[in-house]
Design brief:
Elements lengths: L4 H4 L29 E2 L5 H6 L12 H10 L5 H10 L2 H10 L9 H11 L4 H10 L1 H4 L6 E2 L1 H13 L4 H11 L4 H8 L4 H13 L4 H5 L4 H12 L39 H11 L10 H10 L2 H17 L7 H10 L2 H13 L7 H14 L2 H13 L3 H18 L3 H7 L12 E4 L4 E6 L5 E5 L4 E2 L13 H33 L2 E3 H9 L4 H5 L4 E3 L2 E5 L5 E2 L13 E4 L2 H4 L2 H11 L33 E3 H6 L6 E2 L7 E10 L2 E12 L8 E10 L16 H15 L2
Antiparallel strand pairs: 1-2, 3-4, 4-5, 5-6, 7-11, 8-9, 8-11, 9-10, 12-16, 13-14, 14-15, 15-16
Helix pairs in contact: 4-5, 4-6, 9-10, 9-12, 11-12, 15-16, 17-18, 18-20, 19-20, 19-21, 20-21, 20-22, 21-22, 21-24
Amino acid sequence: MDLPTPLLDPPWKRKPAARPSDEEPIIVPGLTPPKDRLIVWRFGERERWAEVRAYGFWRSDEWERAAEEFRDGRMGYEPTRAGFLAQAPDDLARPLLAEWKPQVTWDFHHSLVPIVMRFEIRALDVSFRLAKQNPAGTGPILMPFLSADVARLMADWLYRLKSAQKVARTWFGRHGLAAVPYLVPDALGKRVGPRRGAVKALRIIEGDVVGAARVHGDEAAEAVARLLADAPATTAPVEPPIRPPSLPSWLDVEALPRPVLRDGGELPPEAVRNLLLALTGSPGGRIDVTPVVDGAAEVCEPGSLTAFAWALLEAWQAARLPKGSRFVMSALGRFGDDETVRRLTPLIKEWPGQGAGHPRAVQGLDVLVEIGSDVALTQLNGIALKSRYKGLKGEAERRLLQIAKRRGLTAEQLADRLVPDFGLDADGTLTLDYGPRRFAVGFDEQLKPSLTDEKGKPRKSLPKPGAKDAPELAPAAYRRFAELKKDARSVASGQVARLESAMVMGRTWTKAEFGQFIVGHPLMWHLARRLVWLSGDRAFRLAEDRTFAGLDDDTVEFPDQADVRIAHPVELGDAVAAWSEVFADYEILQPFPQLGRPVHALADGEGENGRLERFEGLTVPTGQVLGLTRTAWRRGAPQDNGVEHWISWHLAPGVTVVIDLNPGIVVGLVDLNPVQTIERVRIGTGPYSEAIENGLADVDPIFVSELLTDLTSLTAS
């Protein structure tokens, strides 16, 4: 087989076109830019910035102590320091702002917005420093500022940084001709770097640029006119020379298994190396590596490419996971299969707990998205539901929301579609054929597989294939059951938790969705028939024949446009006891507490002052607090030294219940403070607000019951 040309002659080996020489400079010496530093707000912009909530929360009696912590360095977490400056009394905040020199390389725009809104031009210096450290992420904070140093910085980004093109062009589009006087001295000056950027900026500004330049005199205006007349046809950013890709020193290419060609033989060593080099690049980048990777996929056996990609991961692991090896994940995403997903997912779940493993785990999530099979998306959904690492859980949730949006679905509707059927029969069972004997697989209330033989006798385990079994059927059936147990174990707890959350949050299904994704799904059926459901105010269960049975086993019917939801015991009221008796008679075990779920209500007058005081002052294990996050509770934003001082549940629009904790939960070291004191349980509009009176008055009784159940469970130990 002839190999595709890109595999043997990759694009990075081709000689790049010669770069054009620089233009002859036009110099007008002695010009200086205006010295004024302005902030120019657009209509309504300052009001919108005022709506951005500052990080952190301090009570009125805490400002002096917090200012001291800011000064002596104990308030070390920069978002907390930014939040303090945005909210502290003016006499404390202003001197601290003047001395504040944060070293932040991540996106800091959100934290700076409340500071710029409050202090305006006084916040320019710190905004300028942080924007230089992260042009694309923090650079937008400079949008309202107009000064010589900002104009020079934006011109430099325009000329030199591809990543900051959007920021720079937006800034010049916003300030337009008002920026011209600040650019002209550099555009007509001797310094090469500033001159290149300023000239490029003048050429993209619309309007009478020459007229705006005349503030520097007629000679300068005429020189600018010549610059504009001599403008090249393109205003694309100047690209640096192309550097060919390279492989890391830890990788021994010859030790990797060579992919097998479809017509026999192996991919030649030179082509293997070119494939690896292509994987280090970006599709659609300056060097388009796509033809190289696609060429390998065209001529190689898919299974051998999968093995090649996994061997690359193992080599990376053996080298102790050095940085700068994103191409390893690129290979897995491009060539991985469902078995890759099964092997990679446990690593993704572990990596956040291994030093700087969070970015690596996030790359692993992208691999699952790129593979995109039902198994891959199911594992992604499982991480979003129950990862013990908050950051990884959030990243998985964001990816699922993006996938759902692309498909025109809600996150819950997507989750319905991601539940695998594992090849089960329509009745939710699986037959394992050994030839002379067969075994049936069913599932219990926790989706744990159970086995029976041909006579219906339960078995504890599946026997290994014997001499009398069919040599082709039995080993395959044995492997099938091993994979089923593994896959079901990874799916089960996530689906049980999902249905419990659906009951608490009042999630509904249309009748069609209920029939397709719940009743008609061979796996979800095992859970659904163990619950009581509601359509309108009519309660029912799923009978063995998948019909809807009422409390007296009468058939329940409802119209096609009706919605269906899982009944909460608050809604069932006095009927809970009768339904419990029915389930006991049929020996139905529930996947989570439904009929036996505690029901609570507020005592007379409780919560009217915005507090739930009977839970305050108690000490509880940190592990129990973290256990609340399996449902709707969310851990608070980290404050100084990465300590989370609260946990909250957004019950309804404008109503959030916050549990203030002392000493707080340390991010990444949750065992450091094994016990927490509940200082306050307050009802407010959000985590940063003070308590509000009668905040629970209009909240759904189900949410109130669940809230009190959670709080009672915390204090029961």
